[in-house]
Amino acid sequence: MKRIILFLMIILASQISYKITPVLATQEDEAAFEIKKVLEGTYHSLALRDLETMMQYVSVNYSATVEDGTVIDYTKFKARTKEFMDRIFNKYTNYSISDIKMFNLNIEDNKANVEMEYSWKGFNLDTLLEDSGKKRRAATLVKENGLWKITQWRRLSD
Fold first, then answer.
1. Rounded to an integer, what distance in angstroms lies between the CA atom of residue 155 and that of residue 36?
2. In what order do the strands lie in the sheet with 129-144?
3. What is the 3-state secondary structure (H, E, C) of 101-135?
4. Facing residues of 143 across strands?
5. What is the pLDDT of residues 39-76, one digit of tens each?
6. What digits encode the pLDDT tens for the residues 89-129?
7. I need a labelling partner for 10 at 20 to 30 A (CA). Which of 29, 74, 100, 116 fits?
8. How far apart are CA 80 and CA 67, in angstroms?
9. Which of 49, 28, 148, 40 shows the shortest CA–CA distance to 94?
10. How many Å apart are CA 108 and CA 31, to the nearest integer?
11. Which domains are seen in the chain, by residue range?
12. Are 29 and 143 in contact (CB under 8 A)?
């Protein structure tokens, strides 16, 4: 009798586990999809020189420390991004970003860390040649009011 009860408990536990595991995987897949959309939206807004749309993907609680130890908040990040856009669009025409890939995505509760790589190209107005390359970045995102927002951004390579 004990063996039958033990056997039934094992079957019940495996059935419960089987039903829960896909739900957890689906939630993580959904979060990964949402995060990828945030990253794509950020980069496509950058390529379109649309600072206001890009900043919709950034948390007002943005805070990152750059190489020289300076802390960058939301306002400074926006100003630095505008300066970057101005430099890019003064140097290039037909600037585009593509092939955005995510690596090492780690999601815990409402916080995510991710590395990404993207390709860029643009027609250089100085050399009259097309330039292109790949860049790697890392970001931390948090879920605020149901939406993933970037709270930190850092360069991995240029």
1. 18
2. 92-108, 111-124, 129-144, 147-157
3. EEEEEEEECCEEEEEEEEEEEEEECCCCEEEEEEE
4. 148
5. 999 999 999 999 999 999 999 999 998 888 889 999 99
6. 999 999 999 999 999 999 998 999 999 999 999 999 999 99
7. 29
8. 14
9. 49
10. 10
11. 2-157 (3.10.450.50)
12. no
CB 113 within 8 Å of CB 3: no
Task: Please tell me the total number of residues recorded for the chain in this structure.
Answer: 158
- Classify burial at 62, counting beta carbons within 10 Å of its beta carbon; exposed 0-12, middle 13-18, buried 19 or more: buried
Question: SS3 for 146?
Answer: coil
The DSSP line for 48-95 is TT-HHHHHTTB-TT-EEE-TTS-EEEHHHHHHHHHHHHHHHHHHEEEE
* pLDDT on residue 7: 53
Rounded Cα distance, 141 and 122, in Å: 28
* Single-letter residue type at 38: V
Q: What value does the mean pLDDT of the chain take?
A: 87
Identify whether the C-beta of residue 73 lies closer than 8 Å to the C-beta of residue 61. no
Q: What is the DSSP letter of 141?
A: E
Token output for 121 = 């190209």
